[in-house]
Amino acid sequence: MIEKIEKLKQEIAALQAGSPEEAEALRIKYLSKKGEITALMNDFRNVPAEQKKEVGMRINELKTIAQEKIAQLKAEASVQAAAGPAVDLTRTPYPIPLGTRHPLTIVKNEIVDIFSRLGFTLAEGPEVEDDWHVYSSMNFADDHPARDMQDTFFVESRPDIILRSHTSSVQARVMESQQPPIRVICPGRVYRNEAISARAHCFFHQVEGLYIDRGVSFTDLKQVLLLFAQEMFGPETKIRLRPSYFPFTEPSAEMDISCHLCGGKGCSFCKHTGWVEILGCGMVDPAVLEANGIDSTQYTGYAFGMGIERITNLKFQVKDLRMFSENDIRFLDEFTSAN
Ligand code: DAH
Predict the structure, then answer these.
(1) Per-residue pLDDT averaged across 110-130, rounded?
(2) What is the mean pLDDT of residues 189-205?
(3) Where are the domains of the chain?
(4) Who lines ligand 1 at CB under 6 A?
(5) pTM for this predicted structure
(6) For residue 29, what are the CA distances in angstroms to 4, 26, 71?
(7) Alpha-carbon torsion (227, 232, 234, 236), positive or negative
(8) CATH number of 103-338
(9) How remote is the CA of residue 230 from the centroid of ligand 1, in Å?
(10) At 47, is the secondary structure helix, strand, or coil?
(11) Do 192 and 218 touch, CB atoms closer than 8 A?
């Protein structure tokens, strides 16, 4: 009996309670009518007479110890419960890992932003287009090679429905629904049937610009493109226009910027010319204005188009076009600070 009392004493000294409920459960276990200490007291009558005095004292002592210990556990547990969970609510939170914008989105936003500040508004058109908006309304001859299967993706069973191969189709969409003055910037995805390599892909992104009003001249075009180049690549950037040909503009030009890596001195990036090509542009051909319901005796306009991948490569020196669509998180993470 004495052994049992001593064992219980040790057990009770080590008791713990995480909540007032747990402390109450301990009271029931040891001190209730069916509790272990009560059971000891019930056994007291079987203790031989000569031991009764000592055993009695020890049982009473055990009961007092148990009552005090459990009361103490109850008190501590209720203080803790009132204080709430054991966390430090003043601690600075763990940083939430932020995703990054795709580099093409970063550059597209920057281009759109620059032209918005010059008064251009955003316009968009469908990626699945008809031949009229992509080619005919843009003054492409019926036998123009761009319509060829080599270049254009056709939607099965509909020879007149295609995936647009340039964002110039949005020019036609805007002109048919709006009269001048028109000043729009049109970013979007385009598709061409090309073998995928580091330098070519079957889809990429372009931004188209269109400005039509009375008296718009080539000088206006040149000035706006110079402002754009300097905003995008730095105030010391120079531009150079070379004569070119597009069916929808006359005259047409291609624009180079001074190589911003070598400052125009010549390096491997600009193939030692000091210049890199960034866009095509020109005065909207009167035939395009007429085809889209705009009076070419009253209005003139300019247009330009550039590849977003190209601008992104120039800004961030991405060597392989395929990186843009592989969704490799290590590549995307490199642009966190450019966001
Ligand atoms: N659509 C042309 C292309 O995909 C780019 C372009 C050139 C757009 C000249 C224009 C422009 O608006 O004036 O290569």
Answers:
(1) 97
(2) 94
(3) 2-83, 103-338
(4) 166, 168, 208, 246, 249, 280-282, 303-305
(5) 0.73
(6) 16, 5, 14
(7) negative
(8) 3.30.930.10
(9) 21
(10) coil
(11) no
